[in-house]
Structure formats: structure tokens, C-alpha cells
Amino acid sequence: MQLMPPLIRPEHIQEKLHIDLSVIVPVYNEQKVIRTFHHALCKVIAQMHNERIEVIYINDGSSDKSWEMIQALTCPFANIVRLNLSRNFGKEAAMTAGIDHANGKATVLLDADLQDPPELLPDMLKVLRNGYDVVNMKRRQRFGESFFKKFCAKQYYRLFKSLSDGQIETGVGDFRMLSERIVNHIKKMPERSRYMKGLMSWPGFKQTTLHFDRPQRVAGLSKWSFLQLIGLALSGITAFSVKPLKLATFAGALLSIFAFIYAIWVFTKTMLFGEAVAGYPTLLLIQLFLGGVQLIAIGIVGEYVGRIFLEAKARPVYLLMDSESSVANSHSRVN
Ligand code: UDP
Ligand code: MG
């Protein structure tokens, strides 16, 4: 029998095996900010000179020059991995692509608009190394967001927390640092509707929370319309809780009891006073009310059936069109 010669690993694969921190950056139409962001990030990375860092940019089907700009970005102190998705799959899918390609002992998710300050990375890493698996970054202040958006976000977090038995923390977005074992668990989660805030909280382990003031976006506009935010909110709730279904059952039961009591009252009244055909408006109101409640209940069931349909098709969460990487100059010097 002939023995196979040992495989010689290319240098960049060896580099990948010793990464201390993976920085994941989803990018969608960010040509106005991506360079500024990268310079700010690279400056912070330069100060963390003892760490081996990889930055994973995921171009989420941008229609502007973001991908060309990402291809041109370099940082002498970090490996740069560039992933180009085949179309816009949404931020959750882009972050999933990043997590799938992360090799670090720690992984952090950053928005490309500098709303998640890279300057906080060294502190987050220090806290994570004190024995934590997740460092959540809670927003103390949210600058540059309307009162309405902040109000809706607060109410949504509250609702989600009560529906999902407190699995996610109020005011914590996607800006978190995760340990390798949490990332490995997330990589293995098979679901397609990926509500990352939920997925990152679900494994539990040792979590801690730091506070920060969330600055305004440096340039460009938020990519989320109000309707998209509602979609994300619904997807989060249906992916993490079946309580709305129970709520529909509960409302049905409550209304049946109410209808039964009302029937007894109408019957007694007619028997005692012999009332004739009056009550047309009451009838109409009750009809409309019940019709509304039934439609809401069907809608809730429909949301879940829709999710089952999407999960059953088992299509990939994202498709990669291109990927490129470059290795840091400094990594060969650092142990
Ligand atoms: N993003 C993405 N795909 C999308 C929408 C957004 O990758 O379909 C990225 C975007 O480029 C940014 C991050 O997700 O890096 C956060 O987006 P944005 O700033 O628009 O969200 P906001 O801060 O307003 O919640
Ligand atoms: Mg933003």
C-alpha cells in the first residue's frame, strides 16, 4: 500500500489557526463610511499589537461601490477576509456568514457606520478573558435616533423579554463579543430565520453587560425602514416564542365564556320581559369584534406556518459569490 505524503498547509491557513479576535463587519451600501470605519478600526488594531486579529467584511449585495472599496482595504496588523454575498440577504444572514468564517478565540460583531465604537474592543476583550462567554454592550444613550424609534425599540424589547422568558436583555443590539464555544454553538444552529440577538443570548453560559453611549451614524442612512423593523421584530418573536399562539387560544376561551354569559343574560331578559327584535347594533358590533379576533388569531397561526414553510425548504441562509483574504504583515512577528 502506498502512503499519501503529508498535506502541506498553505501559510494563510496556518495563520487562521491562531486568531485571538475575529471582527465581523456586515456591509450594505456603505460607500460613504466604509473607509472611515476601516481606518478607525485599523488604528485600534494597531494598538492591540499583541493580538492576532482577523477582520471579516461581508458585502451583503451592495448596489454601490462598497465591494470594490472593501477589496482595496488593507491593514498591516490584521488578516482581512472579504466575503461577497450573491445578493442582499439582510443583516442577520450577513452576520451568519461572518460567524461561519470566524476562527478567533473571541468574535465581535461591529456595524460599519461606527455606531459600535471600535475603541471599546480592548476593554471588551479584557472582560471576556476574565472568564465570560458573552460581553453584551448595552446602549445607555442612543444618539441620532428619533424619539419614536427609541420608544418602539424599548417597548419591543419589553414585549420580547416577557414572551421569551427573559432570554434577551433590553437595549443590547448585535454589538457583542462572543467566546469561541458560543460561536461554535451558533455555527451549529440549523434554523434559517436567524434572529441573531436571540441566537447569541440563547446558549446562556457566562454573560456580562457593559454600558456605552451609542453615537450617530458617521454618514449615510440607516438601512432599515419602519416596515423592515416590524418584520425583524415579528421574526424575532416567532423564532423564540410560541406564546402568541397560546394568547390566541386564551383570547378564544375568554370570548367563549363572555358569549356564554351574555347568552344567559339575553335569554333571561327575554323570558322575563319578552323583548322582541331589538339589539341590531349590539349584534353587528359583536360580529365585527369576533371577526377581528378570529382574523388576528389566523394571522398569528399563519406567521408560524410561514416560518415552518421557510424552515422546511431548508435553503441556505446566504450564498457566497466571491471570497478573498490577505494576511497581516505583522502576524509573522507576533507569537
Ligand atoms: N446591513 C447589512 N445588510 C442589510 C442592512 C444593513 O449588512 O440588509 C449592515 C449595515 O451596512 C451596517 C449594519 O448592518 O453595517 C447596521 O445597519 P444600519 O446602520 O442601517 O442599522 P441601524 O444602526 O440603523 O439599526
Ligand atoms: Mg447604524
UniProtKB/TrEMBL annotation:
Transmembrane residue ranges: 224-242, 249-268, 280-305
Record membrane topology: Multi-pass membrane protein
The UniProt record lists the keyword Transmembrane helix: yes
SUPFAM superfamilies reported in the protein's UniProt record: Nucleotide-diphospho-sugar transferases (SSF53448)
Keyword list, A-Z: Cell membrane, Glycosyltransferase, Lipopolysaccharide biosynthesis, Membrane, Transferase, Transmembrane, Transmembrane helix
Annotated GO CC locations: plasma membrane
Residue ranges annotated for the Glycosyltransferase 2-like domain, each copy included: 22-185
GO molecular function, one term: glycosyltransferase activity
Name the record gives this protein: Glycosyl transferase
Organism: Agaribacter marinus
